[in-house]
């Protein structure tokens, strides 16, 4: 089985949304629509990656840079392709893309009950920030 990794293109967005809808663990929001995701990819063209197998999109990660920190969204691997280091490779590519523009830290938010993703992030060397809470405001 050969897995191809490459930058996400705007044309990958519909298949990415379908992948995300098929799985637990991701919080799909109103902003996960083609227009908003197109804006994200166009604003962060070097930080979003996909994995594919035989032309089928089977993994994604979205990276965003706000001028200070990197943010990771929608890391996802199709259930049939898990535990093959595909997420690790997607994250390595995203981290590398941040390092290339001198980003020194990036953050990822995980749902409290998503223990699989928590184990994954611990395994790849991410630190759980128990001293922080996240506040959000809808605009
Ligand atoms: C979390 C997720 C992206 C991991 O994808 P993956 O490709 O299977 O992960 P990898 O194969 O790269 O895992 C690397 C290491 O992380 C750890 N890990 C990954 N998934 C794990 C799990 N379910 N339980 C425990 N450890 C896990 C393991 O140590 C693994 O190495 P190993 O398989 O040699 O033991 C995948 O389970 C997924 O898509 N989940 C649903 C969406 C989601 O929750 N996304 C994160 C949103 S914050």
- How many structural domains in the coordinates? 1
> How is the biggest beta sheet arranged?
5 strands, mixed
Q: How big is the Rg?
A: 14 Å
Shape: globular
Determine the fraction of residues in helical runs and give it as a percent range.
25-40%
CATH C-level: Alpha Beta
The spatial strand order of the largest sheet comes to 1-2-3-4-5
Instruction: Bin the strand percentage.
Output: 15-25%
Number of strands: 5
| Named CATH topology | Aminopeptidase
Calculate the mean pLDDT score and round it.
96
Number of alpha- plus pi-helical segments: 4
Spell out which ligands are present: coenzyme A
N-to-C SSE string, H for helix and E for strand: EHHEEEHEH
Overall description:
The chain has 4 helices and 5 strands. Helix content is 30%, strand content 22%. It is globular. The model has no long low-confidence stretch (mean pLDDT 96). The chain has one domain: Gcn5-related N-acetyltransferase (GNAT) (Aminopeptidase, 3-Layer(aba) Sandwich). The relative contact order is 0.16. It has a 5-stranded mixed sheet, sandwiched between helices.
